[in-house]
């Protein structure tokens, strides 16, 4: 069946215009001797599949909940919002779950953990439809930051304080990059695993935050975190918060999306190239570069999921401001006074963030609505991510051998069978924060071979990974657009992941995201979405 038989796009014509027809042809040996074909289809009109759509996409099995695992309140030394205000703002923007992650700090450990817990419980009572966690942003010894959260019932605050006191680099003097400090980070992860084994805490989760903002987290550290505490350290921010920092500012001096305007420092890993310190369409270089660091970890065949979030400290356009306080206020109290309403929208630094759900969305497929459901969905990698409302829904299913899997799943097939990936999205039908309805211009299927554990723990390339299929939806706003791609006669294990774009910025002559320009990066003018991978094991 040709790509012109049904709504879709002529693949070779598209790739030729993008200068990639030769690259697509060269990609065939990736699954050698497999042959791939593709068809643009509208699944509402054509059910020419040998598996039901409900089973393919897990419809009826999962509730998809929007959330954010990285927010800050007045209990952070560099933020201002009350817990209640963050929860209310998240609710206004369609979020269902939030993790409050105030920074590790000496005064935070002394004075802030228990009051934060009381405020979280009060917000939970006021907004019973939200799922609210008290976590923290951990200053990781020898590295930078990570989200840590879990459930511990009445012992939540004491356990968080114990972790912070013993393992946060601000409290232990272990900021510098060194083997000894890296070892302390791994000790902290083993401690979390031990607390879970003893049932002192339930379902701890760790995400590495803004991994390359300062180049502080080396590839071998990411692998060490993952392998030391599998099922606990489950991934990283594929895109950082602070996305509004790239807006051209009214008085000039624009910042960088996510705060990624930095250069190597004394604690940076020396192997990162200069471009690793920038975002690409708002996404971290680890994620945005096809065949890069994220793909090198997926090529090992081990789970490593990505997220996106607000990193909310001061939200662009808000009229709330923090009252003036004497120097050293936070160091004495562990908390700033409640913000006050100035009546004037704030558009300059430090107002670089959005509310949870306002721009960045981490969408998790849960078997049941509740704390355990979200934790299980996160750990399973049943996650897709979107910026600026680019799509209302993304569904990806991979099937073969009579079975099917969606995001984060692992499909098992016999050697020589065909494997088909079906991608379906519902396009946006309402304006985002820019006042315009975003247009989903293209969806890409990316695939790469699973080659096993990396011999070099600092490897950050996966040469076999590439875009194997691109699809340009022709239908307008508020419609379902879908296509499929089949890998025939599969011989070796591989993984599949999907991304999408509004198509407004690419590298010259190609389809890859372009590096964001510091001070000239309106986040609404370069939107992308990503899905987490599905692995295919071949017997």
TrEMBL record:
SMART domains: POLIIIAc (SM00481). InterPro entries: PHP_dom, PHP_domain, Pol/His_phosphatase_N, Pol/histidinol_Pase-like, TAT_signal, TAT_signal_bac_arc. Residues 238-266 are annotated as: Disordered. Gene3D superfamilies: Metal-dependent hydrolases. Transmembrane segments: none annotated. Residues 67-142 form the Polymerase/histidinol phosphatase N-terminal domain. Residues 252-262 have a biased composition (Gly residues). CDD domains: PHP_HisPPase. SUPFAM superfamilies: PHP domain-like. PANTHER family: EXONUCLEASE, POLYMERASE_HISTIDINOL PHOSPHATASE N-TERMINAL DOMAIN-CONTAINING PROTEIN. This is PHP domain-containing protein. It comes from Amycolatopsis samaneae.
